Amino acid sequence: MIPEKDTKVGKSEPQKDKYGSFALFDIEHFVRRILKNWYWFVLMLFIGYVISWVYSKYYAQSIYASNLSLSISNNTSSYFTPNQSINFIWGQNGNQDGVYLKKMLLSRSHNEFLVKELDLFVNYSTKGIIKSTYIDKTDSPIFLQIDKKHLQQINYPITLIPKGGDSYEVVLPEEGQSTSLYSYESEGFQSINAYAKPANKIIKINEWYNSPNLRFRLLRNTETPKIKVDNIIVTLGSVNQSVNDIVSTIGVEFDKEIGTIMIINKRGFNLNSTVNFLNKSVAELQKKRLADKNIVNKNTDLYLQNNVDNIRKKLDSSAAVLNYLKTSEKLYNIKDRDEKSLDKIKELEGRKADIVSKISSLNNIKNTLQAQDFEKMISTNAAGFEDGFFSASVTELKALYAKKREMAMIYKPNSEPIREINRLIDEAKAGSSGSLRNYYTKYYDEINKIDQQVAEANIDLNSYPEKERKYLDAERGYSMIEATYNSLLGRQNEAQMKVATNQSDITVIDPAKNLGQAPIGPNVKAIKMGIMTGLLLLPFLFILIGEVLDNKIRNIKELLSATKIPLLGVIGNNSNENMLTVLEHPKSSVSEAFRGIRASMRFLMENNREDGKGKTILVTSSIGGEGKTYISINLASVIGLSDKKTILLGMDLRKPKIFGDFKIDNKYGISNYLTGEVGIEQIINNTNIPNLDVATSGPIPPNPSELLMSKRNIKFIEELKEKYDFIIIDSPPVGLVADSYELMKYSDANIYVVRHEYTEKYMLKMITEKYHNEEINHLGLIYNDYNTKQGYGYGYGYGYGYGYGYFDEDKNYEEPLLIKIRNKIQTIFNKK
């Protein structure tokens, strides 16, 4: 029961510093607190379940997704919308058409067209008792058509309630009407004068509703909706807001095996809305794609026809010159012709003529682009190449110039929006110009190589006479023009074939359908678990924070480990109205604990002097309220009952207590004796215990410390040692005053009271250091007010025998639930 004092010689400073230091976190006590507060966790779990159920049923907005797959052919001649680095960005190196189409589907221009064409800025929903549900336009029995010439208030819910027949009541919010209204023509806001809230009004289908902030009419849905709604809530949005909302919900992916197959998905709060949007979006894209292709192919055919006509004239003129030389100069049968060199030269010059023709087409594309005459653009095939980067830049430029013309009607030339769109135009120009420069460089490099090869071949022809060389030059010129003519005819035939057989290169494989797909979000199960887990963590965190911030002594093992001071005993909770537990309840467990302390005191004082005088036991604590006086009274009582003449001294002069429980008059006490007012016989009072006397504190003096440290007090104690076997001193708490430290010099044993869940850990630092520095000797701890429901006393004698009829408390004892379960399990396994 009493650990040995650490008396190792030459203790290092770090070893001394560890005394009185407690662990920051007591895991054992933390677990006990969690188990003790189990009902909070059950309550939070229940509340979390209720909240998650209400959320999932009334507040969670299901998110749906529909898909559409299509195939893209590779014979495009149109200009699309991705920028010059789109292949790099999207990682589609071998599928330029697919990348263009992806950019188109995500482009602002395409989605803005759909928003305006389909009135997607009009949003429909319906509201139940609690939850609002988004519905598709086709699910509403009526459509709302706005007057786009009238200013409208957006993000302002308009509730339409059926009133029978073709009538609907228009109900507007009680507040929220704005003077900043939106114009669907200019796509901007305008301010109007303040106005009163528009009154609710019943209107019929096709009847216009007019108010300062709204103008619309209702149209009947020609199809019967599949669902029935009690009300329709319509909210208008701006074009820009609607476009951004739509683009953010579109996803485009390519098939991993076949790169020309594209899978488009659309997310939304209503499945029908996503299905209808995808099908309409792709249908409009097919139309636009085909129209763009036809315009370009027709422009190309017309351009090539003009070139063919011009080349035909040159070809006829060259043929006339050649025939003249044959007939007049008789040069058609040149001897020793080097046919090999001539054929090589003709082939090289034919290739050169074809490249020159492509450069001419390239010049036409460049000039058209610089003139911003996009409607006259010809196909890049006419210039002998297909470049997705260039096509993307052209289309981007076309869209940007159109947007700039619209913005110029609203914004000033030096405004930030105009500067931003000019920056985008410059970027697109740089992209298109860069692509063209690459082809110019490529073609001129090829011409230079051909000229070098022709020059080398001409060396073999220098030996011919001048007339013959003249004929050969004419023949080569004719061949060159003829090659250009044939090349143009071939490209023209290709362009005409495309015009005749042109179809959209977008083929829908699987259209979007409403197949009753389950929602893709939100993850209600995960949210439920998150809500319940979060609420479960609340009591856990509160307990954890409380445990970290709690600095009270709650663990006997930790107390002994940190202080290394012997433990004399553990005292349970005092349920009596007074402090006389040993006298009034001698068979209680608390009384038995005091008897154990009485026995332990022998070990604490076994090395003290044996001079025939009484033993002085001083009882102190850190602060008031820790049970110092209670321990003093009952320890004196249990020693007095053991037939030892004992006196209890109330030397806590600042806060007298003892007299009340013993029903003694405190008119005269130790303070009176120490000031010389009365004699010793006048302050000693007898009690019901024959061997126990009490000397109370007396009136509170103005100088208690001086009185306690006076020679008269030391002499007083020495005189009492001659008359009594034991002197129990109820001294002041050492955490408040230093009186007790001085009195300890004259005591044979010192008891320091630590109260469970009351004494602060840091208060034990000083007494522990003094003990291990041997400034205080014969010191022992008493752990007071320990609660039996928290354990079995850690083996220190308290609580032993509970439930076995040994103590008075056993008549009202009820085993804890965990103990019942343990005993039941042991009984089952012990059966044979």
TrEMBL record:
Keywords: ATP-binding, Kinase, Membrane, Nucleotide-binding, Transferase, Transmembrane, Transmembrane helix, Tyrosine-protein kinase
Protein name from the UniProt record: non-specific protein-tyrosine kinase
A matching Pfam family: AAA_31
InterPro entries referenced in this protein's UniProt entry, alphabetically: AAA_dom, Bact_polysacc_biosynth/exp, P-loop_NTPase, Wzc-like_C
E.C. designation(s): 2.7.10.2
Keyword Transferase carried by entry: yes
SUPFAM superfamilies: P-loop containing nucleoside triphosphate hydrolases (SSF52540)
GO cellular component: plasma membrane
Span of domain AAA: 615-757
Enzyme class: transferase
Homology family: Belongs to the etk/wzc family.
Catalytic activity of the protein: L-tyrosyl-[protein] + ATP = O-phospho-L-tyrosyl-[protein] + ADP + H(+)
Domain of life the protein comes from: Bacteria
Molecular function terms from GO: ATP binding; identical protein binding; non-membrane spanning protein tyrosine kinase activity
TM annotation in the entry: 38-56
Natural source organism: Chryseobacterium carnipullorum
